[in-house]
């Protein structure tokens, strides 16, 4: 069961893009809309408390898994430099709806891992991460 009060890392800010505060983001998500659709996200520096920030716009670099995004209040290259290496997060209660027979990786946490040996199920561990 997914804890609705937990955070999910969806990307990492890798560098600045241009002089107007845009940043490059390496996606850790299968859902591109997280970097394209305006709305609130959270930034986290190392292991500090996440802080809320508004995504204004974004686009995907053709042929790459890199997004160029613009946050509200980050208007210069100097501002963008200050958020390099920050993680971009969403709350786990904001997970996209899935199709039948699809699942989120978070739903695997705490499940038993089993193997079939000589027609017997044998527990070999538990998913922890």
Written account of the structure:
This protein has 129 residues and is mostly beta strands. It has helices at 33-36, 77-82; strands at residues 7-17, 22-27, 39-44, 51-60, 66-71, 87-91, 112-117, 120-126. The strands form 2 sheets. The chain has a 6-stranded antiparallel barrel with strand order 1-2-5-4-3-6. The two termini are 14 Å apart. The mean pLDDT is 87.
CA(first)-CA(last) distance: 14 Å
What structural class results from the helix and strand content? mainly beta
DSSP summary: helix tally: 2
Number of strands: 8
What characterizes the major β-sheet? Answer: 6 strands, antiparallel, barrel
> What is the helix content?
under 10%
One letter per element, helices H and strands E, the order comes to: EEHEEEHEEE
Indicate the proportion of strand residues.
35-45%
Features:
129 residues; mainly beta; 6-stranded antiparallel barrel; 2 helices; 8% helix; 44% strand; elongated
List the SSEs and their pairings.
Layout: E1 7-17, E2 22-27, H1 33-36, E3 39-44, E4 51-60, E5 66-71, H2 77-82, E6 87-91, E7 112-117, E8 120-126
Antiparallel strand pairs: 1-2, 1-6, 2-5, 3-4, 3-6, 4-5, 7-8
What is shown here, in short?
The protein is mostly beta strands and 129 residues long. It has helices at residues 33-36, 77-82; strands at residues 7-17, 22-27, 39-44, 51-60, 66-71, 87-91, 112-117, 120-126.
């Amino acid at each position: 069961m997914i804890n609705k009060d937990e955070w999910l890392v969806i990307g990492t800010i890798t560098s600045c893009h241009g002089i107007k505060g845009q940043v490059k983001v390496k996606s850790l998500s299968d859902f591109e809309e997280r970097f394209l659709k305006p709305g609130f996200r959270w930034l986290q520096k190392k292991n500090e408390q996440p802080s809320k920030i508004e995504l204004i716009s974004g686009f995907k670099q053709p042929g790459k898994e890199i997004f160029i995004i613009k946050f509200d209040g980050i208007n210069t290259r100097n501002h963008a430099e200050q958020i390099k290496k920050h993680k971009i997060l969403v709350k786990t209660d904001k997970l996209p709806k899935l199709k039948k027979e699809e699942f989120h990786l978070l739903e695997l946490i705490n499940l038993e891992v089993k193997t079939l040996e000589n027609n017997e199920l044998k527990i070999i561990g538990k998913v922890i991460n």
